[in-house]
Here is the input.
Amino acid sequence: MKSYANRMLNLQGEGAYKVLAQANALETQGKSVIHLEIGQPNFATPEHISKAAFRAIAEGKTGYGPAQGVLSLRKAIASYVETYKDLHYVPEEIVVTPGAKPIIFYAMLALAEPGDEVIVPNPGFPTYASCVHFCGATLRNLELREENQFDPDPDQLLTLLSPKTKLVILNNPNNPTGRHTSTKIMRRITELIRDYSDAYVLSDEIYDRLVFQPTEPVFSPASVTGMRDRTIVLDGFSKTYAMTGWRLGYGLMNANMAEVFSRLMVNSNGCTATFTQEAGCEALLGPQDSVDQMRSEFHQRSVWFAEQLNQIKGVHCVIPNAAFYAFPRVSVNGLGSAEIAERLLQEVGVACLDGESFGQMGKGFLRLSTANSMDNLTMAIQRLHTFFDTL
Ligand SMILES: Cc1ncc(COP(=O)(O)O)c(C=O)c1O
Here is the structure.
């Protein structure tokens, strides 16, 4: 048999899906596993949103739609981003995709090629680095350090920016750290990109409604003078509205880039499911109280969980201020985080991710999702104590 194309060697899988499969296999053997590996809200999609999809199906909205997304949803997105991000976009500048992930892939396919450099947060969402490698571009790491509360460092960014920089990916609030960076730092970072390069920015804002105690309005790099047309804003429905399985996301970008993204859609997905988009309109324009409830739950659980982690010998966790992740450093008896993650699953039934699956700066850390019930999180803490206390 002939071999696969070389580029496939560079496309990686994702730790969360691998560990989920491993954990499921253990469960089928009768082992009890607490799932803290996968990043998805443990809430049902709000009923009014699901009902909008049922209605759309009953009305026969089940055929192909425009590659760029149905106009009603793009109008709803324009109105939503005006309210929540203070950004002004028209439907021609909005592309709807099945989940937010295609926006990452398309941005890379549209922009990155051999000879280009792409700056990516490290630790960061693994798809970023995987797509950079797939496109043959060179990865540069914007280091998120524990001693800086995982904020990006403008001085380090300055050392990375060069005429070769084609794209800078920013992700605020951040997965895996569960940290939200202040507007002051994000504005400085964006201004440096503007002033010291002609790079594009991919701003992954998928967790921006899940800042626990917002003290300032949501900041998007697209709002900085001169950056709107150089920025692709990524957002979606998975995290904010507990719609991970629906596959619905979108990007905001200049109209020219939107035409390029639409061509990528035509050639890959064709279009996003039409009835799902109807549900998306309801999510954005309907009542928002479920978002507030989920945020408040995530806040309570994440802070409590991180504080409990800090009681465990050899574990230190920066207190999260957004999203639904804890990212503790683990240092016991010279064991590496990969080995600890593996042993936690096998020995005490806690599924979590090795921080290094988010890049080398994540080495020595674990990522645990706090999007789980308090009962399960309490049990997980007991199991973690059992494991770490007996090491
Ligand atoms: C930082 C970040 N960006 C993008 C995504 C992709 O979201 P979606 O499930 O809508 O494709 C995720 C999902 O885990 C994420 O954590």
The longest strand covers residues 165-171. The CA atoms of residues 144 and 150 lie 4 Å apart. The mean pLDDT is 97. Residues 39, 99-101, 125, 171, 175, 204, 206, 236, 238, 244, 249 surround pyridoxal-5'-phosphate (CB under 6 Å).
